[in-house]
What does this fold into?
Amino acid sequence: MRHSIIQSESDDPSTDDVLSWVYYVKKNAVVDTLFDAYPVNSIRLEMSNKENLQATINDINLDNETNYWYRRGQLVSYFDTVRNGNTYQKKMYEETILPIQEYLNGSIYKNQLNRFQDNFTNKLDMLHLAMSLHINIPDVLVTDNSDDLATFLSSHKKVITKPIKNPFIDYSTKIYNVKFLTHTKLITIDDIPKEAFSFMPSFFQKYIEKKYEIRSFYMDGVFKSMAIFSQQNEKTKTDYRNYDRQRPNRCIPYTLPKSLESKLHQLMIKLQLNSGSFDIICTPENEYYFLEVNPIGQFQWVSKNCNYYIERMIAEKITRHE
Amino acid sequence: MSTQLLRLFTNCRIVKGYSRSVICDLQRGKIIYIPNSLTELFDDNNVINVEKIRSELDNESQLIFTDYLKLLNDYELVFPCSAEELDSFPELNLEYDYPATISNAIIDFDKNSLHNLSYIIDNFLIQTNCRHIQVRCFDEVHLDFLKILLTPVGDSFIKSIDIVIKYTSSISQSQITELVNNNKKVRTFTIHSSPINEVIQKENTNSFGVIVSTQQEITSETHCGIIQSGFFNASMETFTESLKYNSCLNKKLSIDSKGEIKNCPSMKESFGNIKDTELQQVIEHKDFKKYWKITKDQVTTCRDCEFRYVCTDCRAYLEDPKDIYSKPLKCGYDPYTNQWDKWSTNPLKQKVIEYYNTHSQ
It folds into this structure.
């Protein structure tokens, strides 16, 4: 019997809910969990044409047939202290441990949902690929120059900025922990620094007028989409994540045009992502603009609002080979 | 602009009753009353064709129609939609599924009870994946009892516990507040038979940690089954469950104060005592799930009621105790007149109330 491995964070409610479904759909499911900064204290890998892959992480045995779901968290190897050591130790880490670590963070198993590497999907990369597949994207400018930004702003009238990478930043020192969240913000002429000619390279994008926004959960070619009516509410107009809890934006099931779904499916194949959550805009002229795909995103509010049972879909997927 | 169509948001569900309708807003948990004449303006796809309707109305009706549209807009129940766009908004999936054999359990205690919660969690709740429990104490308890009760919950897979205890001068309000705040899985804590009605602590950000005291007495399992609008739940879960199952008894397990295992503690049928019964015997008993699939659409009177998919229902106390499809005894609502009356003083119900009094254990 095959077992399933779930790598996640111990306080992630989505993982908890999926686990409920796992034990419900497969009564005898055997699940190992690797939570948070999971310490890898011992590792063994064996490959042979006859036996295929046999691996052991700590006391957990894995092979090609293992079901694997990467949700959150990371593996921490016992040599990680060396990583931050002196130059020589650092070099040693990079040359010896890192390739093993990278291998474990990639796609190893026949039936795997997401992988640690997906955390590093590059936003510029995905926009470029989307462009090449003739998916509409709002015009992008990455610049460090005030004049350049001023020109971009005057030609597009309304421009937003958002983080190139993760909007959630965790920064810890010995003394304090800092967490901050950067939302999408509209840029006005007053935001452009006047004294300084240049600033850190930043991401700007033409603001697209919305009729509604679409959040679409994708897994193995299947789309579960939801329309978000964010424009009735001033709070959520630019970024629906400025939630209004008293009067939440209307969120209802939506179906994307088949032609767009097939392009987005191509995009996911090129990005080597087998699951993720799309952010898409539908304009008042009924044009669709792709904003980004979040590989490790929230899917439960789509699931709950639309009664899609995405948690059950995931549970079925990660217990497939039992 | 093409013909203006207004589409009802698919998570707002119209339920038509005999004399009026409600829109159950399953996203915001609200129930909005509308006249049946407004319900009839929606076509089969829940769309109102504004222009077409306008053209067919006389002057007086125009004003009413304007009021109707204002109501729909004020509650954000509809959105403008072109005919081409309609296909992009599929019907809501009304399926109900729940990842547990038992979704919720009630465990009752009185001063003579011998069962303990640890044993119940280990032998009944884990196997059935039951993660929400309610514990009711009909008699006074000590603080230590509550501490021992909560110990196995904290580290277990249980997600929420609702506690009901009898008012006692031996436990102070601050002790209760401390207990609740130290046990994050306590969703609600209710003190019955209290000298006053009071909200002692409001819910925290996760809607947990509510403490209230009530003058209402809950001194036995007969204090249940009351239908009132405050208990209505316009949620996706309750609504979809009510379409196919009994909103009270589906996937429910109860241990009454004597340790008898039942579907509902107020019912007579026991499936064995906890001290000598295995879970499997209960689950496989042909009558344990007898009431699970009785929907409101099958119940006399309720089938005509606009609240039928948000109601708590009750199959333990019925207007006609011999008919399992009869209306809950403790419901004072009349869907034909839309009036709420006090059920307990209704002359027609006196005989039945007498029946349950003499037949209770």
About this structure: The interface with chain B takes residues 17, 20-21, 23-25, 227, 229, 232, 247-248, 250-257, 286, 304-309, 311-312, 315 of chain A (CB under 8 Å). Chain A has eight helices and 20 strands. The first helix of chain A runs from residue 13 to 25.
